[in-house]
From TrEMBL:
Biological-process GO terms, alphabetical: thiamine biosynthetic process
InterPro entries per record: Haem_Oase-like_multi-hlx, Thiaminase-2/PQQC, Thiamine_Salvage_TenA
Entries under PANTHER family matching the protein: BIFUNCTIONAL TENA-E PROTEIN, BIFUNCTIONAL TH2 PROTEIN
Keywords: Disulfide bond, Hydrolase, Thiamine biosynthesis
EC number: 3.5.99.2
Recorded GO MF terms: thiaminase activity
Residues annotated as domain Thiaminase-2/PQQC: 20-237
Protein name as it appears in the record: aminopyrimidine aminohydrolase
GO cellular component: cytosol
Originating species: Prunus yedoensis var. nudiflora
């Protein structure tokens, strides 16, 4: 993107550009066979339970990541942006989410204390740890944060759309990430990420210096999130090659 636009013609923000440019992998992450199987009601419940246990491990690692983004927002020192409030609300919902996972696990007879992280979970959690480092730019961390939340929001909202046959007992899980409030929260994260990215793309004099380097790093990070999400869904389906061999 060159940052220029014709008068009256709306131009894409950076995250739109990325989603269009990397459309195939984006669809791969947000319309994965696992999600489609929930949506058409053919989901294998053992796959759902595996997802539940692994996602609980992921979410626990996601909390300190979000806390690290909060620290970066604070250090940026721009109180009027409202970024901290948005991120803090995210931490608040993660608190509810962890309680929900525990409750859901007991409902399905999954003993969370016995769940060991599988390779895709370990790799994704390690990626989060890398992003927590203080040297990682706020712009890069925000892009990752938005992408991680957006994949779940788009995936689970798809399971609640008109015509979907999501089993009743899975609708609550889909509501967690597919509800409108979560959609608005994802838009806020996206706006923060785009505003950060715009500081370079528009060529405006940046108040907070964001290097060109941070913009390309952010795009690479966005892509890596999509890859980790696809691996995570594959693992849940048992299509990652580590599951029991097919008869
Ligand atoms: C693997 C993965 N990606 C994104 C989310 C959504 N964020 C927090 O809940 C999640 N729970 N798990």
């Amino acid at each position: 993107m060159d940052g220029k636009s014709k008068p009256g013609v709306p131009y894409d923000v950076m995250t739109d550009t990325w989603v269009k440019k990397h459309r195939l992998i984006y669809i791969g992450a947000t319309r994965h066979p696992f999600i489609l199987s929930i949506r058409d009601g053919t989901v294998d419940l053992s796959a759902f339970k595996r997802w539940l246990g692994q996602d609980y491990i992921f979410v626990r690692a996601f909390v300190p990541f979000v806390a690290s983004v909060l620290i970066k927002a604070y250090k940026k020192g721009d109180e009027s942006s409202g970024d901290m409030e948005v991120i803090l609300s995210g931490l608040g919902s993660l608190n509810d989410e962890i309680a929900w996972f525990k409750q859901e696990a007991s409902k399905w007879g999954v003993d969370l204390s016995q769940v060991a992280p599988e390779k895709p979970t370990q790799d994704y959690c390690r990626f989060l740890e890398e992003l927590m480092r203080p040297e990682v730019d706020y712009t890069v961390a925000m892009a990752a944060f938005w992408a991680i939340e957006a994949v779940y929001q788009e995936s689970f909202a798809h399971c609640l759309e008109e015509g979907s046959k999501t089993p009743t007992e899975l609708q609550e899980a889909c509501q967690r990430w597919g509800n409108d409030g979560f959609g608005r929260y994802c838009s806020s994260l996206r706006n923060i990420a785009d505003r950060q990215l715009e500081k370079v793309a528009s060529g405006s004099v940046p108040l907070v210096k964001v290097s060109e380097d941070a913009v390309s790093k952010a795009e690479v990070t966005f892509l890596r999130v999509l890859e980790y999400e696809v691996d995570f869904w594959n693992m849940s389906c048992g299509t990652d090659g580590h599951s029991a061999p097919k008869p």
